[in-house]
Design goal:
Layout (H helix, E strand, L loop, with lengths): L2 H23 L9 E6 L22 E5 L9 E8 L11 H22 L8 E7 L5 H12 L6 H11 L3 H9 L1 E4 L5 H13 L8 H13 L9 E2 L1 H7 L4 H4 L18 H9 L16 H7 L31 H14 L14 H18 L1
Parallel strand pairs: 3-4, 4-5
Antiparallel strand pairs: 1-2, 1-6, 2-3
Helix pairs in contact: 1-6, 1-7, 2-4, 3-4, 3-5, 12-13
Length: 377
């Protein structure tokens, strides 16, 4: 085999890292996710106070995930992730000795953070993940599990190796193993590429072939030396990579004010019952101007069963619909606003507008997104 062909599998590993990380970055778009940042090649530079510097084990962190905050003190969870990909030996099982360097480094960082912060228990905040497309030795996985649970070891030799790798034992080893996750047999490079395209399609109205490329390019840039002082990717970064921003996610917010001392219409209970019994068929209410359609629309939610969701779309917008800067009747305005209000309630994926999508694409995307969420529930 030529030297060039020996290098290519290493390049495969880099691409696997970037694709896997790109998929994780999509979680930043989810309104019901507390993920605040994803770092590439190292921990967040905001993780610790400026006067504190802990580099122990940082070379193992291919991806970092920060939930709640990028600071260790305020974060609800921080995940340190090492990724390993093999093209030539995808079916070769990871042995304990092959994991030694990873476990030694992870345990060293765990102890360093404890010593620096004076924390007795970081179990509820830290996680250490090893992710690979190769399978992991089953006996060793059971040894990690037994150590975490504090039960008699099924594999004494593997337990001793685990103790030697981590330089921990007893309750200290159990505490560390509770936050250690070894995940083998993950999808390889080719599958990661296809899955990324599928994942992004859940957020876009049309098949934007450039979107996966741009998102992976964002990961690639964060892996370069130019991002040493800022390895973190935020929600704003992902939106920019997908050619949009926060304002475009909610292009037509409701401007209808909540009215006080409203007199309920006698027809409200009847209309609510018709909606409840409609069995997913549309119910259209129409009336002459000034009758009170807007007031009725704002009160419909009060008569729906517990757990129901409603969106009041304001197509008038205090007359702004007439302005070229405030269109409200186009599909890319109305359906994006409606979809993202539903997404904010955790009912579907966010819908990211695309500059070239046709109106039918927005209708189809809203329908498919809600149906996908419905099937998952």
């Amino acid at each position: 085999m030529s030297e060039t062909n020996l290098v290519r599998p290493s390049r495969d590993g880099d691409q696997f890292h970037y694709l896997w990380a790109a998929r994780r970055c999509l979680l930043l778009l989810s309104p019901d996710s507390s993920l605040k940042a994803v770092t590439i090649e190292g921990a967040s530079t905001s993780e610790l106070p400026p006067a504190v510097c802990i580099t122990t084990g940082e070379e193992l962190i291919d991806v970092g995930e920060y939930y709640g905050s990028e600071t260790l003190e305020e974060a609800t969870r921080i995940r340190y992730i090492q990724l390993k990909h093999s093209t030539l030996c995808a079916d070769e099982v990871w042995t304990p000795s092959g994991l030694e360097k990873t476990l030694t480094g992870f345990a060293a960082r765990y102890k360093a953070l404890q010593e620096c912060l004076g924390a007795d228990d970081l179990n509820g905040k830290l996680e250490f993940l090893f992710v690979s497309n190769r399978p992991i030795n089953t006996d060793f996985l059971e040894a990690v599990h037994d150590a975490a649970e504090g039960v008699p070891a099924r594999h004494d030799k593997d337990l001793k190796k685990l103790e030697r790798f981590t330089n921990l034992s007893g309750t200290a080893l159990a505490a560390f193993c509770k936050l250690l996750h070894l995940e083998g047999s993950q999808e390889g490079l080719w599958d990661q590429r296809n899955i990324l395209a599928q994942d992004i399609s859940c957020y876009l109205p049309d098949a934007d072939m450039d979107a996966p490329v741009q998102l992976k390019e964002l990961i690639t840039k964060k892996a370069l030396s130019e991002s040493t002082n800022n390895p973190a990717i935020t929600r704003m970064d992902v939106l920019r990579a997908l050619k949009t921003d926060e304002s475009r996610l909610f292009p037509a917010p409701c401007l209808i004010k909540d009215l006080k001392n409203v007199v309920p219409r006698a027809q409200e209970p009847e209309i609510s019952n018709v909606i409840i019994q409609a069995n997913r068929f549309p119910v259209i209410v129409h009336a002459a101007a000034g009758v009170g359609k807007t007031v009725l629309a704002s009160r419909i939610k009060l008569g729906l069963p517990t757990g129901s969701a409603s969106v009041l779309y304001d197509c008038f917008g205090n007359g702004q619909y007439r302005s070229v800067s405030g269109y409200r009747h186009r599909h890319k305005d109305a359906l994006v606003q409606i979809a993202n209000e539903l997404a904010a309630k955790g009912l579907c994926h966010p819908l990211i507008p695309s500059p070239h999508a046709e109106p039918t694409a927005y209708v189809r995307a809203l329908h498919l997104s809600s149906e996908t969420k419905h099937r998952l529930d």
